Amino acid sequence: MQLAEIEQIKQQLIKLDSAAISDAMDSLNIPAGLSGIIPRNSGMKITGPAFTVRYEPIIPEQGKFLNAGNYIDEVPSGHIVVVDNQGRTDCTSWGNILTYKAIQKGIEGSVIYGSARDVSEIRRLSYPLFTTGIYMVSGKNRAKVVETQCALRIGDVNVCPGDWIFADDNGVLVIPLQHLLTVIERAENVEKTEQAIIEAITNGEDLVSAREKLGYAVPWEHNS
Amino acid sequence: MQLAEIEQIKQQLIKLDSAAISDAMDSLNIPAGLSGIIPRNSGMKITGPAFTVRYEPIIPEQGKFLNAGNYIDEVPSGHIVVVDNQGRTDCTSWGNILTYKAIQKGIEGSVIYGSARDVSEIRRLSYPLFTTGIYMVSGKNRAKVVETQCALRIGDVNVCPGDWIFADDNGVLVIPLQHLLTVIERAENVEKTEQAIIEAITNGEDLVSAREKLGYAVPWEHNS
Amino acid sequence: MQLAEIEQIKQQLIKLDSAAISDAMDSLNIPAGLSGIIPRNSGMKITGPAFTVRYEPIIPEQGKFLNAGNYIDEVPSGHIVVVDNQGRTDCTSWGNILTYKAIQKGIEGSVIYGSARDVSEIRRLSYPLFTTGIYMVSGKNRAKVVETQCALRIGDVNVCPGDWIFADDNGVLVIPLQHLLTVIERAENVEKTEQAIIEAITNGEDLVSAREKLGYAVPWEHNS
C-alpha cells in the first residue's frame, strides 16, 4: 500500500470508533477484538497497518542481560507495532527507549499482548499504548524476538503484517487487509444508523420504535 | 414506593458511602457487595431502586444482527439499571444508545454484570457506569434479554426488583428493600463512629485507645 | 538504620525508577516485583523501609465486628506499611481511618497484598496506596492481624522488616536490606546507560548501534 493511500484510509477510519468497526466485522463473521489488551492512557484513538513482532520465552541466565532483540529500526512510519509476548505479565516487552524511538520514527502506537514498563513516562509523552499489563520487570533474559512481520495469533484473532489495527478506549481491533474497504463502508453505515437512532431518542422517541424505523437490525445496509 | 419517598431515601443514602453501608449490612449478616463490578469513571456516587434485566447467551447467526432486546423504554426515572449478562466480557450489554436514552429518561446509572462499550462517550456524558469489563464487541447475536424485573443472582448476592443499589468508587452494593431503613440507620451510626475516631486520631490520639473509647467494635450502635 | 541514613538513601533512590531498580535486581538474580499489586492513584513514587503486617482469615461471627487488630500506632515515621492479606479481594485491609493515622504519623504509603476501601477519600488525600483490589467489604470479622514485623512471602518474593520498598506507576519492588547499596549503585548505572541511549536515538541513531556502543547488555557496569 502506498503512503498516500494509507493516509487516505486513516482519515476515513479515524472518524469511526471501535464499536462501529466491530459491528461491521460481525456482519462479515470475522473475529476482530484482541481480548484483554487495554488502553494505558485515556482518550487515545489510533489506526494504521500492523508491523508484527513475535517473542518467545527463554531460560534466564544469571549475571547478564541478553537483549530481547531489535526490530524498531525496521518499523515504517505510520505503522502500529503489534507484539505477541504470549500475554505474559511477569515481564515486559515495551518501555521508554522503544517509545522514544517510536515517536522519533513517526510510529502511531503499540499494541502489546503482554506487559509494558515506564508507563509514567509513556503517559507524559502521550504515546498511544495498549497492553495486557503494566509491570517493571524487564523482558531481557526472559523473552526474545524470534520473528518479525510474521502471522500472529492473539486469542482467536489472526494478525498478519499489513492488516489494519484500530484501537480506542474500548480496546483493540484487527481488520484483515482484504476486507478493509468493505469494513470501512459498513462501519460508516453502522455509524449513520446509530446517529439517526440517537437523534430520534433524544427527541423523545421510544427506543423500540426508533430501532425498527431506522433499520437497527442490519445497520451496515443504511441508506438514507 | 412513592416518588416522594424514593427521593427522601436517596437524600439520606447519598450522604453515606459504600464502606459504612457495607458495615451496616455486615451487622445484619447479609452479603451485599457485587464483586468484580467496578466504576468506569471516577468520583461517581449513585443510589436508587433496581430495575433488573437478565440476559442469556444465544448462538450467533451469520449475516444478521439479532437485536439483544429492548427494556430501556420501561425503566422508571430515578431507577438504576442492573443487567445480569453472567459476567461475560466477550461481548457487551451496554453502550452509547442506551446511555442517551437513560439520560433522557432520568435514569440514575447502570450496573452491568458483564461488559460495556462506547466508554469514551459515556465518560464524556458523565453517566455513572459500573461494569465487569470494557470491550467493543456487541452483544447482538451473542446474548439476548430473556426477562426483566426478575430476581437476579450475581455472585453470592440476590438482587430483586426494587431492592436498592448503592455504588461509588469502592464498588457496588445491594440493599434488600425490607432492610432498607435499618441499614440506613445503622450506616449513619457507623459513619458517626468513624468520624469521631478520625477526629480523635488527627488530634494525636492512638488508634487503639480511640477505637476502644468510641465503640468501634459495634459502630452501628453509636449514640452520643 | 539511623534516621539520617534513611533520609540519605531515600534521596538517592527517589531519583530512580522501578525499571532501573528491577534491572539492578535482575543483575543480582533476586526476584523483586510484587506481581498484581498496582497503584490506586497515578503519579505516586515512594520508597522507605518496610513495616510488615500479616493477616490470617477468621470465621465470621454474626452480629458483631471483631476488630482486625491494631498496628498503626507502632509504625515509625518514614516507613512503608506492607500488609499480607493473602491477596484476598473479598474483604479489605486498608481504609480511611488507617490513612488519616498514617498521614498524621508521617508514614510514606501502603502496599496491600489484598484490597482497600475508601479509595475516593484516599485519592483526595493524595496518600500513596498500592493494592491488589478495591472493594468496600470490611476485613473486620473476616481477617485479623496475627503478626507484625515478621517475614512475609508475597508471590515469589520475601519481604523482611527493614527491607526497602520502591513503588511507582509500574508497580512495587522489594530490595533486601543487605543488597541495598549494591542495588542503588547498579540502578544508577542502568539509568545512565538508558539516558545515553535515549539521547543517541533521539539524535537519530539506530537503536541497534546505540545499544551496542553504549553497553546495553551490561548496563549496571556503566562507566563514562
Describe, in plain words, how this protein is organized in 3D.
Three copies of one chain form a homotrimer. The first copy, chain A, is α/β, with parallel strands linked by helices and 224 residues long. The first copy, chain A, folds into two domains: 31-175, 3-Layer(bba) Sandwich (Glucose Oxidase, domain 1), CATH 3.50.30.40; 183-214. Chain A has six helices and ten strands, in the order ααβββαβαββββββαα. Chain A has helices at 3-13, 18-27, 96-105, 119-124, 180-202, 207-214, and strands at residues 38-39, 46-57, 80-92, 109-116, 129-134, 143-148, 152-154, 157-159, 164-168, 171-175. In chain A, strands 1, 2, 3, 4, 5, 6, 9 and 10 form an eight-stranded mixed β-sheet that branches. A two-stranded antiparallel sheet of chain A has the order 7-8. In chain A, helix 2 (18-27) crosses helix 5 (180-202) and helix 5 (180-202) crosses helix 6. Chain A is elongated, with a radius of gyration of 19 Å. Chain A starts with a helix and ends in a 10-residue tail after the last helix. The model of chain A has no long low-confidence stretch (mean pLDDT 94). Chains in contact: A-B, A-C, B-C. Chains A, B, C: InterPro entries: RraA/RraA-like, RraA/RraA-like_sf. Chains A, B, C: Substrate binds at residues 95-98, 117.
